[in-house]
Design brief:
Number of helices: 1
Distance between the termini: 98 Å
Number of strands: 8
Strand order of the largest sheet: 5-4-7-8-1-2-3-6
Structural class: alpha+beta
Helix content: 25-40%
Largest sheet: 8 strands, antiparallel
Shape: globular
Strand content: 25-35%
Order of helices and strands: HEEEEEEEE
Length: 211
């Protein structure tokens, strides 16, 4: 009789222990699930923050190249060309090619203007790009505007080219050197490098936006 009671007590204790272990396991699973949910939530937030950071940085991101397609601003004057801008070693190189048959054998001025808007015969681009607030002049000989590219001599077919490399320009960033969004204007006349603030370069016969 005593042995039976002992065995019954033993079985009761064993059952209690097993039940306790089972409940503890359930609690651990619950805590693990909470921990996983918490971790997943943190990961998602971190991902969102990273994407926000990337999106913000894109607004001011530097790019390796940009281009301008130059079109006529007047129907009776054919103007075409491109300007390709590339970056290397902290400098920007511009390679400009122009074709203006009606100006064959002549010289025309090319400038960068403040706003990327070619409407109203290019007048909506406003004045020369001049972030340093200097007087108009000849490129490389201070003072001059950062947009004072200068004159391009055209051959007997009206074709001409010009290459400039400078650290005064960038493609992107929030600095006042950023070329993106500026207009490239081709004038009908030659820049005299003296008349303020335009160089007396004549009407705006060609225009394109750097993008």
């Amino acid at each position: 009789m005593k042995m039976k009671n002992f065995n019954g007590l033993t079985n009761s204790i064993l059952s209690f222990c097993l039940a306790t272990l089972f409940l503890a396991g359930c609690n651990n699973d619950s805590e693990t699930k909470k921990s996983e949910d918490s971790t997943m939530g943190t990961s998602t937030n971190a991902g969102d923050t990273t994407m926000d950071t990337i999106a913000m940085s894109t607004d001011t991101a530097m790019v390796q190249s940009a281009m301008v397609n130059i079109s006529p601003t007047y129907a009776d004057t054919a103007v075409s060309g491109t300007a390709i801008f590339t970056t290397a070693n902290g400098e920007v190189t511009m390679k400009l090619d122009l074709t203006i048959p009606s100006k064959a054998g002549k010289t025309v001025a090319v400038h960068l203007h403040e706003h990327g808007d070619c409407s109203d015969n290019g007048k909506s681009s406003h004045g020369h790009w001049n972030p340093t607030k200097e007087e108009h002049g000849k490129w490389g000989k201070a003072p001059y505007h950062r947009g004072d590219i200068g004159n391009v001599k055209l051959d007997n077919k009206g074709k001409g080219s010009l290459t400039i490399t400078t650290d005064f320009w960038t493609l992107g960033s929030t600095s006042d050197k950023n070329l993106l969004g500026k207009a490239l204007i081709v004038h009908g006349g030659m820049d005299d490098y003296q008349t303020q603030p335009t160089g007396d370069a004549g009407s705006r016969i060609g225009c394109g936006v750097i993008q």
